[in-house]
Each structure stands twice: as C-alpha cells, then as structure tokens.
Task: inverse folding
C-alpha cells in the first residue's frame, strides 16, 4: 500500500493491484496517455526526485506536486522517527540497475543539497539523482553511457 500526498493537501491510498491495472501507455520520454473511466488523460512527469519520492506531474493542463510514501516510510512516520536528520551520506549508490545518461558534476565541484548529480535511465524512465547534502565531490565512479547494477557506487563525497 502506497500513500500519495498531492499538493501537500490531498491524501490518497494506492494499492499495488490498482497501480498494476492502470491503463497507461508511455507516448514519449516521461509522457503518458491514460484511459480512466473511458476518459482520455495526458500525463507528463515534469520533475522527479527518486531519492525523496517526490514528483511534479502535469495532468492535462494542471500541475501537481506528488509525494509518495511506501510501507517503510509509513512505519517510520508511525514510530515518530525522522529519516536521516543527522546522517551524513558520503556515497551515492544506484537505487536500481540502469544506464547513466548524463553526469552533471565533476570531481572537486561543490554541491548543495538537492543539486542534480546525474541522470539514471531505468525501465524507460529518466531518474534525476540529486545530492542528499552539501559537500564536495571526491570522485565519480561511472561514465556517461555506462550501465550500472543496483547498489553500484556512483559518486563519493569528501
């Protein structure tokens, strides 16, 4: 069961069965045609932050901020814990297998939290991997066009 919060106001529960039954066809990169109750819907992912599970989606002519929480996120919320408030991330690893489409930083660059680091294509979706913190890029372990496995080391911070 997933929970989706739209525009920080509206909460929706989405189960896996409903998600699998969605009649959606990708028409081009990050653009979809959806049929729902015999109505045609055009959807486009304008921005995605895979690590934070936040997306900016345009449905027909309306734009929505969507935050998704999986079962683990919901359990952590129920326990009253905050994820990683004092944790210092030193390595960026691939969240899934995919192809490195673009690298936006170089070794020695200073980055701020949420700055884009690279784009990982997985399952025909472009996922922007953003910086989890401020820091300096120590090393980049991948090259553009390289295929990576899940948990492959991509970038190290100083």
Result:
């Amino acid at each position: 069961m997933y929970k989706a919060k739209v525009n920080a106001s509206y909460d929706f529960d989405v189960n896996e069965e409903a998600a699998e039954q969605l009649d959606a066809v990708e028409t081009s990169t990050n653009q979809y045609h959806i049929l729902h109750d015999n109505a045609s819907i055009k959807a486009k992912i304008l921005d995605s932050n895979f690590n934070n599970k936040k997306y900016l989606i345009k449905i027909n002519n309306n734009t929505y901020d969507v935050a998704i929480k999986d079962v683990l996120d919901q359990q952590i919320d129920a326990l009253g814990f905050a994820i990683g408030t004092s944790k210092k991330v030193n390595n960026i690893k691939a969240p899934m297998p995919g192809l490195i489409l673009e690298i936006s930083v170089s070794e020695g660059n200073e980055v701020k939290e949420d700055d884009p680091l690279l784009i990982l294509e997985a399952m025909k979706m472009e996922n922007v991997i953003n910086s989890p913190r401020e820091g300096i890029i120590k090393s980049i372990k991948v090259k553009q066009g390289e295929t990576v496995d899940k948990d492959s080391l991509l970038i190290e911070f100083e």
